[in-house]
Amino acid sequence: MMAHDIPIPRPLLRNAGLLVAFSLAAVAIGRFGGVGITQMPPALAVQVLDLAVEDRPDGRVSLRNAGSGRLVAEVQPGEDGFLRATLRVMAQARLREGLPRDPPFRLTRWDNGTLTLDDVASGRRINLEAFGLDNAVAFARLLEQGRGAS
């Protein structure tokens, strides 16, 4: 097999190097100087509900206001699959990390219209709209029901 030397013109190499240097400089200026970066203002919480979750022997899941202990909702077996699955995944993650079961899950409605579910024990956050509007509505109902359970 023969090796072929293909000459590359020096001006082409110089221009390629300048292009790389310019790109790196532009990224650095954008990152450190804030030029060309769009940032959203931080959202403010407009409604917060701390939920204590209890699995019942008959398969129901009781959701209580963690502050007052008042019942917010009971999810029957086979109902609200997304809500059940989300809470279960977060609870199982706590167990894997050896965290306590007692801290509540925090459901928050933000002034930009989004809903999040936070695990105050682990610091994990789930943006509920990421799973579709219908799924977020299941948690939004809890906020409405929780207004009377303060």
- Calculate the terminal CA-CA distance, rounded to whole Å: 81 Å
Helix content: 25-40%
Portion in strands:
15-25%
General form: elongated
Number of helices: 3
Say how many strands there are. 6
Report mean pLDDT, rounded to a whole number. Answer: 87
Low-confidence region ranges: none
Task: Decide which structural class fits the backbone.
Answer: alpha+beta
Across the major sheet, the strand order is: 3-2-1-4-5-6
Spell the H/E element sequence: HEEEHEEEH
Rg result: 26 Å
Structural key phrases:
150 residues; alpha+beta
In short, what is this structure?
The chain is of the alpha+beta class.
Describe it for me?
The protein has 150 residues and is α+β, with helices and mostly antiparallel strands. The chain is 36% helix and 23% strand. The protein has three helices and six strands; from the N terminus they run αβββαβββα. It has helices at 10-33, 81-96, 133-146, and strands at residues 45-55, 61-65, 71-75, 105-110, 115-119, 125-127. A six-stranded antiparallel sheet has the order 3-2-1-4-5-6. Strand 1 (45-55) and strand 2 form a beta hairpin. It is elongated, with a radius of gyration of 26 Å. The termini are far apart. The mean pLDDT is 87.
